[in-house]
Amino acid sequence: MRRFWKWTLGIVALLLLAAFGVLSFMAGSPKDAYGMVRYALPHMHRGTLKVGDDAPDAHLVALDGLNRFHIRERTGGRPLVLVFGSFT
Amino acid sequence: MQLYSDYKDHADFLTVYVREAHPTDEWQMKSNVKDDVCYAQPKNLAGRVSIANDFIQRFHYPVPFGIDDMTNAANDAYSAWPERLYVIDERGHIAYRGGMGPFHYSPKELRAWLAARYGEVKHEEKQNQAPAKS
After folding, report:
1. Residue B33 domain-assigned (yes or no)
2. Any chain B CB within 8 A of the CB of A76?
3. A47 has a chain B CB within 8 A of its CB
4. Which of A27, B2, B32, B121 suits a disulfide with B37, CB 3.0-4.6 Å?
């Protein structure tokens, strides 16, 4: 029984190491792999929206930091292309 | 933002600034240091507004712009972070849903969608425009 757990733990450790190796390769370095796991993955969601769904609304702040508007205020006349992103 | 230049006569565009992807206090990328794009994750709306304005000024970014507030409501509704593209049609339905960035973020795919609807449009590229975002 003890031997079974030893092997199981060894295999799990190897798999984790391999996964971290793959992540490091994908991200560029072990530090980036850590960054990806710690800071990116918790915020990345595939989401459930599908083509044909009602577009959700949300209010946004204008560049002056004061005025607000709704995404849906910008829809209706023509298609609206939404480009989500940040500076970094 | 070549897509905007090419298709602004056919569709409206709105850029939505969401929480930073690679701030200095989280997962900073070497490329951000090289490009001098170094910001901590904003802790309040004023911080987001400030970075958004820096972005606009640096790239003379011409696309209409909105900022997701600290509730991250737009980000949550569209599963947008770190970057993503959508098209909402005239009836208020999702007409195009781009993949989750960065690996599946594809302005090329959006261009194909627009081209299928409005035909190929390609104006001459201008200098000093925003990078990759689309």
Report:
1. yes
2. yes
3. yes
4. B32
**Chain A partners within 8 Å of B28 (Cβ):** 35, 88
Look at residue B9 and tell me if it is in a domain. yes
* CA distance to partner chain A, nearest, from residue B36 (Å): 10
Domain boundaries, chain A: 2-74
Domain tally, chain B: 1
Which tens digits make up the pLDDT trace of B35-94? 889 999 999 999 999 999 999 999 999 999 999 999 999 999 999 999 999 999 999 999
Q: What is the ipTM of this complex?
A: 0.90
Nearest CA in chain A to B81: A44
A86 touches chain B (CB under 8 A): yes
- Which chain A residues are closer than 8 Å to B104 by Cβ? none
Closest CA to B134 of B72, B86, B88: B86
Looking at CA atoms only, how far is residue B5 from chain A in angstroms?
13
B53 sits in which H/E element: helix B45-59
Instruction: Give the pTM.
Output: 0.85
Range of the domain at B58: 2-118
